[in-house]
Write a sequence for this structure.
């Protein structure tokens, strides 16, 4: 199991567990866990409504690709610790990370 901590917009924290063999990205997991994520483009890195801030564990994630970086550049509140949840595949790299939901609400 992969365990990660999600901090919602109201600063409530919840640890969620995800099976290691699930073929989803973090955005899909957050939506399935009933977090209020807009995800307008459906995970294509075209809208940035699944913006998350990585509070812990950024160094263990793969680097963002150009499409993700381009989209993050359009956000006024994006920082060096920002990622798009749709671009984070659920795998062992996510184990132990802590993310704060930043994108627009649905």
């Amino acid at each position: 199991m992969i365990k990660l901590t999600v901090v919602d917009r109201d600063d409530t924290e919840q640890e969620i567990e995800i099976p290691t063999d699930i073929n989803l990205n973090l955005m899909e997991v957050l939506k399935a866990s009933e977090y209020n994520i807009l995800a307008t483009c459906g995970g294509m890195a075209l809208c940035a409504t699944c913006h998350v801030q990585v509070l812990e564990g950024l160094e263990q994630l793969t680097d963002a690709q150009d499409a993700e970086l381009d989209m993050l550049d359009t956000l006024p509140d994006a920082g060096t610790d920002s990622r798009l949840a749709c671009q984070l595949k659920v795998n062992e790299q996510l184990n132990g990370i802590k993310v704060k939901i930043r994108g627009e609400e649905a």
The CA atoms of residues 8 and 35 lie 8 Å apart.
